[in-house]
Amino acid sequence: MCGIVAYVGSQNAAPILMEGLFRLEYRGYDSAGIAVMTARGSQVCKQVGRVRELEAALPRRLAGKAGIGHTRWATHGAVTQENAHPQVSEDGRISVVHNGIIDNAMDLREVLIGKGETFSSETDTEVVAHLIARSGGDRLEDAVLDALGQITGTYALAVTDADHPDRIVVATNGSTLILGVGDREMFVASDLSALVRHTTSVVHLDDGELATVTASGFRTFSKEQENTAKTPVSIDLQAEDVDLGGHQHFMRKEILEQPSSTERMLRGRLDERYGTARLDGLNLGPRELRGFRRLKMLGCGSAYYVGQIGAQLVEELARMPADAEPASEFRYRNPVIEPDTLYVAVSQSGETADTAFAVREVKRKGGQVVGLVNVVGSTIARECDGGIYLHAGPEIAVASTKALTHMGLGFALLALALGRVRDLSITDGQRIASGLLALPDQIAQVLADEPAIAEIAASLAAARSLFFIGRVRGFPVAREGAQKFKEVTYRHAEAYQASELKHGPLALIDASLPTVAVVPDDELKGRNLTAIEQIAARGGRVVPITHPGVAELAARGANITVPKNELELDPILLTIPVQLLAYHAAHALGLDIDKPRNLAKSVTVE
Ligand code: AGP
Q: What pTM, to 2 d.p., does this model score?
């Protein structure tokens, strides 16, 4: 959703801002705009639609060494040019780009209208521009602070003042903003991917922090105007990480990266000798880990489904009660927070509003929450008490793939560490550690079957509706399979426990409704086979995702087989084919795979 870029330095700002906006496209947006500090004051260009349409609409001459840019996902007000950002003050002097929501914007707007101000958009952001412009102070910093004192809500803001074109003032509260430090130039972005082409030296702003950036550097400070001396850190990210690198789609690139990315994630985190995991980032010693009596995983969408895989791993390896709940529901039901429960927030982006609010709810009530997060320095990563970084690298496609696999690995490491301070024997710990180390190669083996899986996917793309079924370990895989299929193919896909089919949905089965059945070689194999027979007997087509040892399915043809790992870890590997099925079905349908309609990469609004 919404994205911010800003630049001040010796180069022409407009091309740098545009390049940044192209980098932010993957987050999802419906309009875009920039403001450049030119010799004739602030010049603002906005456009509904894609960034390339904004680029086409830019005036030929747009020279200026500082500016701000934005991709907007409509919340307050329709998708119109007027509502796109930057929003400007009535006199055109102040320009503002904003991620987040100003809760008291309506009230402030009324007050300002009462004082004679007129508004040209329906946005909450325009209120901020007006407040800043009205503030009497000489310095832009003071005017921004004055406005912040009047607003409530979440924000990442970047502000320019045509009277002070040498500086940009930025502020955050519950929404990420990162400074990029260059050589006599400074960059600002809400996402590292918009910075990585220019610098790897960055400063993550904390909640409540502000910064003034000029060509010669930056100053960070608090709302109380105290300097908050920040040292830039170096990020381990290359420009190629956010490029297509010869692939047609990011989704496929990211699926294919998994053997190397998972190998990188596991490196150094397994202690094979003692059959356990090294998770220093959790900030929890063995005694503290032993003190917890249950776990609750909190995430949204696919992250919630992987949370279910994680809960099973914890129950199996650590024999502790564990469950997963959508963070979007948890935060609204006044949850009982138990002191001996470890809450685990799981998120690729680390910016999902529902998950971030769930973290705050746990913390507000004195609970302990750790994060399984991919984006370093993101809101959720910062707000948790500790955590496990997923190290999947940037994920650009809206449909999450590699980050989910890394979440599965993160949960396996956590379950192993919890198990080994309880009753999991050293031999079993070593067995799981070896299973984890075997996963990258096994993922490569699944990916080697891509042509056959693509063929099956193309045949599934013809169906208007599908079932994905599984039981216990296979069920979260089925849920993720249905989710991924829906997301990128726009086909209806529904996940069911195989055991529940006979209680109703079997009525829908006929030759037009295929079923993808997740059938691990485990103690439920026989029962899964029975469900498959029931579907076949009613003329339904079944595509099993299974293990080589399930001989009964080997004869059926059109199976997808994945290598067998340890029973507890099997769901992680069984998920790889559902990624390929969704990708290739969408490809067969000729859809915009990386940017499915109506969806955003990180859902930063409720
Ligand atoms: C996954 O393919 C989806 N795009 C979506 O369900 C996603 O997993 C969910 O929005 C959570 O995102 P997060 O991991 O960034 O928190």
A: 0.85
